[in-house]
Automatic annotation (TrEMBL):
NCBIfam families, sorted: cobA, PRK05986.1
GO terms of biological process kind: cobalamin biosynthetic process
Gene3D superfamilies, per the entry: P-loop containing nucleotide triphosphate hydrolases
Record key words, sorted: Transferase
Single annotated GO MF: ATP binding
Phylogenetic lineage: Bacteria, Pseudomonadati, Thermodesulfobacteriota, Desulfuromonadia, Geobacterales
Pathway listed: Cofactor biosynthesis; adenosylcobalamin biosynthesis; adenosylcobalamin from cob(II)yrinate a,c-diamide: step 2/7
Domain of life, source organism: Bacteria
Similarity comment: Belongs to the Cob(I)alamin adenosyltransferase family.
Name of the molecule in the record: corrinoid adenosyltransferase
PANTHER family given in the database record: CORRINOID ADENOSYLTRANSFERASE (PTHR46638:SF1)
Catalytic activity: 2 cob(II)alamin + reduced [electron-transfer flavoprotein] + 2 ATP = 2 adenosylcob(III)alamin + 2 triphosphate + oxidized [electron-transfer flavoprotein] + 3 H(+); 2 cob(II)yrinate a,c diamide + reduced [electron-transfer flavoprotein] + 2 ATP = 2 adenosylcob(III)yrinate a,c-diamide + 2 triphosphate + oxidized [electron-transfer flavoprotein] + 3 H(+)
Entry EC no(s): 2.5.1.17
Length: 176
């Protein structure tokens, strides 16, 4: 099965669930034997549960982690983080144009742009070059207004209440 028409989706906002929503879409797509590639920006730590699941869903789901372990300094990102983000975007362009995937997810790419790791123009060029039959999903906080404008669907996750504020750390199998 191939997609008749691929669109561009953006999952943004300060609430939990952007990556999770994109993984739900990936699960639905793999159930229909569509090929999915997720490239995770700024997620060099891990392993995350979704990577373990991808191994079980291969060859339909591929997840590629990029970035260094730990957090990126939002106020003064290191050159190494910028270089890794640029490499990840180049890899994304390669995967998007390869013809091998029906759905490409760029997890946390919006955050990479908002932190200054990537220029928004580079992401917009990638969006414009998307093949007609490939779905593209961009996740992460602070989606740039130009990205929102260029997308076909934009969903904002809004935090109302979060257990992190009560001291609950990321839990294995739920957040990681």
């Amino acid at each position: 099965m191939k997609l008749e028409r691929g669109l561009i989706q953006v999952y943004t906002g300060n609430g939990k669930g952007k990556t999770t929503a994109s993984l739900g879409l990936a699960l639905r797509a793999t159930g229909r034997e569509l090929k999915v590639c997720m490239i995770q920006f700024m997620k060099g730590g891990g392993p995350y549960g979704e990577q373990m699941a991808a191994e079980k869903l291969a060859p339909f789901l591929t997840i590629i982690q990029t970035g260094r372990p730990g957090w990126v300094n939002k106020d003064n990102p290191a050159q190494a983080d910028k270089d890794l983000a640029a490499e990840a975007l180049a890899l994304a362009a390669e995967k998007l144009g390869s013809g091998d995937y029906d759905l490409v997810i760029l997890d946390e790419v919006n955050g990479a742009v908002s932190m200054g790791l990537l220029p928004v123009e580079r992401l917009l060029e990638l969006m414009a070059a998307k093949p007609e039959h490939v779905e593209l999903v961009l996740t992460g906080r602070n989606a740039h207004e130009k990205v929102i404008e260029a997308a076909d669907l934009v969903t904002e996750m809004r935090e109302i209440k979060h257990y992190y504020k009560a001291g609950v750390d990321a839990r294995v199998g739920i957040e990681k």
